[in-house]
Amino acid sequence: MKALILAAGRGKRLRPTTDLINKCMLEVNGKPLIEYNLDHAIEIDEIDEIIIVVGYRAEDIINKYGINYKGKKIRYVIQQEQKGVVHAIECAKKAIGKEDFFLMLGDEIFINSRHKEMVKKFIGENLFGLCGVLIQKDRKKISKTYSVLLDNNYRILKLIEKPKKPFNDWQGTGHCIFKNEILQYLEKTPINAERGERKLVDLIQCAIDDGKEVKIFDICDNFINVNSDEDLKEAKEALLKK
């Protein structure tokens, strides 16, 4: 299995700070954002290589981590144009090869995470996909990511990007595990009319609509997707409480 960490974006909402540094290299309590995700990757025995998709200020990451992180090989993929998550996966298609992969967004922080257990469930149940989610009582926060509609066996029926009225208390994150076959749905994913790019939820929905089994996994106790100064402050406070 590969770990696929996406770290190519500009972080426009964190300007002017990100004019001088890649967003994923912003320090949170003495450690770059991306490093929290690198640490999740190395703790999983099944992962034999880390692929990092870089773009904006790629040298910030490449110069810092080189080709090895605590014993696990790193490979870099360049995303020349930052056109979203699905495009980033597409850029990494050759590097992923024929293996399954654990998608991780380089700007997400997880408190009390259960990444190792998530891999065990994915393999043990031979799932097509497994989306990391958490119970989120503040439904306004769910509107920042995505919501999931489930059946009684926690199988996903529908995903909604940035819902105005979430279905339930499950908040979706960008940390998901996929069978290699998900790559066959990249070209089938429609372009989002508002953003002009293909979205992760639509990629997953294409597979679900085709009958593939994708479930949820309760991945952590708290989660922050860092997109603003307010998010950065929240992440620092949450880690200090931990």
Structure description:
An eight-stranded mixed β-sheet has the order 5-6-4-1-7-12-9-13, sandwiched between helices. It has a two-stranded antiparallel sheet with strand order 2-3. 27% of the residues lie in helices and 29% in strands. The chain has helices at residues 33-42, 58-65, 85-91, 93-96, 115-124, 139-142, 200-209, 229-241, and strands at residues 2-7, 27-28, 31-32, 49-54, 68-69, 72-78, 101-105, 108-111, 129-135, 146-150, 156-161, 170-178, 214-218, 222-225. The mean pLDDT is 91. By secondary structure, it is α/β, with parallel strands linked by helices. The protein has a single domain, classed as Spore Coat Polysaccharide Biosynthesis Protein SpsA, Chain A (Alpha-Beta Complex), CATH 3.90.550. It is globular and about 45 Å long.
Task: Kindly summarize this structure in a few lines.
The protein is 27% helix and 29% strand. The protein is α/β, with parallel strands linked by helices.
Question: Considering DSSP H and I runs of 4 or more, what fraction of the residues is helical?
Answer: 25-40%
Largest sheet: 8 strands, mixed
Oligomer: single chain
CATH architecture name: Alpha-Beta Complex
Tell me what portion of residues adopts beta-strand conformation.
25-35%
Instruction: Report the span from N to C terminus.
Output: 29 Å
In CATH, the homologous superfamily goes by the name Spore Coat Polysaccharide Biosynthesis Protein SpsA, Chain A
State the CATH class: Alpha Beta
Class by alpha and beta content: alpha/beta
Task: Indicate the low-confidence ranges by residue numbers.
Answer: none
Question: What does the overall shape look like?
Answer: globular
